[in-house]
């Protein structure tokens, strides 16, 4: 009996050794084992969305719908990446306060903008473009500057890019009237050129006052120029996309400008990922 027991024990040890060594080390473990045994990365440090793309399904606004569990609803505002100026780093964490030198209501601020002649763009504009949407919204989209259609109508995002933005908003189960839309610059740069730094510097106080009055839950910055102006950085979109920043205490999520999505539809995948994070952040505060 004792001999049979020793033989059985020896066989079981051999099977056990075979089953544990067949996956080798951690790198050879099946994905399920690796994900359980590896420490979880914070949201801000998780692999980029482009490196974790799952298979695609429906199309929310002319793009594939991507389900990315774990990437949505950032729980905290991570530090900005290297490349942000030290001053911007410091100012990012100074809460946005109302300015005493500008009207403390949106109507008054809009009226002041309509008569503004602080920079040269007042010479070529048709209409100033202050904002559209609900001042009660938790979500504010900030673009770069008005284009031709916006300059003529006095409303932001009404051309082809605006129509795509409407679809993007609908994709996160909201309506244009339920969000607030504005630009960094309130007047159109000629030929839609990139805003000059001095123009941004002159116009930025209006935007800051707008945002201080609105106090949104999240800002979605549309396009590199808007992101750079808000965060006062020269960092690239590639280095900032997929992260959540702080604009004076308000979470800011960068994404591509709808005009860029029209030029390069391949970017829509990443834009949809960004929008899902925006949506989840809005929903997370009820
Ligand atoms: S762009 Fe801004 S600062 Fe320049 S004129 Fe228009 S409202 Fe004034």
Outline the fold blueprint.
Blueprint: H1 2-21, H2 31-37, H3 86-92, H4 106-114, E1 132-133, E2 139-143, H5 148-153, H6 160-171, E3 180-183, H7 197-214, E4 218-222, H8 224-231, H9 237-240, E5 245-247, E6 250-255, H10 258-263, H11 268-284
Parallel strand pairs: 2-3, 2-4, 4-6
Antiparallel strand pairs: 1-3, 5-6
The structure holds iron/sulfur cluster (SF4).
Main pleated sheet: 6 strands, mixed
Give the number of domains.
Answer: 1
Number of strands: 6
Bound molecule kinds, no repeats: iron/sulfur cluster
Counting DSSP H or I runs of 4 or more residues, the number of helices is 11
Shape: globular
| Biggest sheet, spatial arrangement of strands | 1-3-2-4-6-5
Describe the model.
This protein is of the alpha/beta class and 286 residues long. The protein has a single domain (84-284), classed as Uracil-DNA glycosylase-like domain (Uracil-DNA Glycosylase, subunit E), CATH 3.40.470. Helices cover 40% and strands 9% of the residues. The protein contains eleven helices and six strands. It has a six-stranded mixed sheet, with helices on both faces. The relative contact order is 0.16. Iron/sulfur cluster (SF4) is lined by residues 113, 116-119, 121-122, 128, 185-187, 199, 202-203.
In short:
It contains 11 helices and 6 strands. By secondary structure, it is of the alpha/beta class. The protein has a single domain, classed as Uracil-DNA Glycosylase, subunit E, CATH 3.40.470.
